[in-house]
Specification:
Blueprint (H helix, E strand, L loop, with lengths): L1 H23 L2 H23 L5 H27 L5
């Protein structure tokens, strides 16, 4: 029962924070944050719960980080290139 309550609470908090972010920033930038959720969960489990991560897990974290960085950089470039209609 405690595990179920903890799971529901974390899901509710995550959704609340995501929708709060949507009200403050563009949807494209907020959706980038959802790609980072598994990385944060894996790192927190490693640090706080001493779960340990395999080399393949660390490689996955690196790939996700590179992908998010790449999307963030291309999003900035495309914003700078779009002309504003007057």
């Amino acid at each position: 029962v405690l595990l179920l309550a903890f799971g529901l609470l974390t899901i509710a908090v995550a959704h609340f924070l995501f929708f709060d972010a949507l009200s403050r920033i563009d949807a494209s930038r907020a959706s980038i944050a959802t790609a980072v959720e598994p990385v944060v969960a894996a790192v927190l489990a490693t640090v706080l719960l001493s779960q340990g991560l395999s080399p393949l897990g660390w490689a996955g974290i690196a790939l996700v980080a590179l992908g998010v960085a790449g999307v963030g950089l291309t999003a900035r470039r495309s914003e700078a290139v779009i002309p504003v209609a007057e």
